[in-house]
Design brief:
about 190 residues, binds guanosine-5'-diphosphate, 6 helices, about 40% helix, alpha/beta
């Protein structure tokens, strides 16, 4: 069965999005970084499973070594199942993603979101960036264009609607994500035919 994986820093709203997608209840706002196991659920409206990979990034009470271990787990999981993974959904917080990326960009530092985005592409997993919490973003187009730029996608964001999906998971506004994922699903089916 085809699989969609969700990755993202902690607190971006991954559990909230999982709840929207699957109809299951998730422990939102719980202690991050506790679950290291991938969790599998059915995508309610579609014929594939969604895998929730552990959140990554700063977590109070979690040391550097543990954070690195989580990251290694995520990378190994995706590498192992890359052939079966239909789409990788990188969830980011639309309000803070660009600032966090800029803060962590340096000569020997690659921001997690940028690293994950390129990693998914390197292993040939079609990637959709679910830009969450858009309800909190004022200059939406401007922010989305900046995010494109940081990910190496030439703005304007509107020409990347298969890749950039602005959502507000909290209010159930995730149709752009559903559409983007569906586009990749159809592309893959077409590739299988020819
Ligand atoms: P996770 O750590 O990535 O699983 O994040 P959670 O799903 O636990 O959400 C973290 C916080 O962000 C919670 O307080 C959520 O209510 C909030 N949140 C999630 N989605 C949205 C959204 O679309 N808009 C706003 N404003 N807040 C959200």
């Amino acid at each position: 069965e085809a699989e969609v994986v969700l990755v993202g820093r902690s607190n971006v709203g991954k559990s909230t999005l999982m709840r929207e997608i699957t109809g299951h209840k998730f422990d939102t706002g719980g202690k991050p970084g506790v679950t290291r196991q991938p969790n599998h659920y059915d995508w309610a409206a579609e014929d594939f499973v969604v895998t929730d990979l552990p959140g990554f990034g700063f977590m109070s009470g979690v040391d550097e070594e543990y954070r690195e271990a989580i990251k290694t787990d995520i990378v190994q999981y995706v590498e192992e199942y890359a052939d079966n993974i239909l789409v990788g959904v990188l969830v980011v917080d639309g309000k803070s993603a660009v600032d966090i990326i800029d803060r962590h960009s340096g000569p020997d530092e690659i921001p997690y979101d940028v690293e994950m985005f390129h990693f998914l592409r390197d292993v040939d997993v079609p990637t959709v960036v679910a830009v969450n919490k858009m309800d909190k973003v004022d200059e939406k187009d401007e922010r989305l264009n900046e995010l494109c730029d940081r990910l190496g996608l030439y703005p304007p964001w509107k020409q990347w609607q298969e890749t950039i999906a602005p959502i507000t998971a909290k209010n159930g506004q995730i149709s752009s994500l559903n559409e983007a994922v569906r586009t990749h699903l159809h592309e893959q089916n077409r590739d299988d035919l020819f």
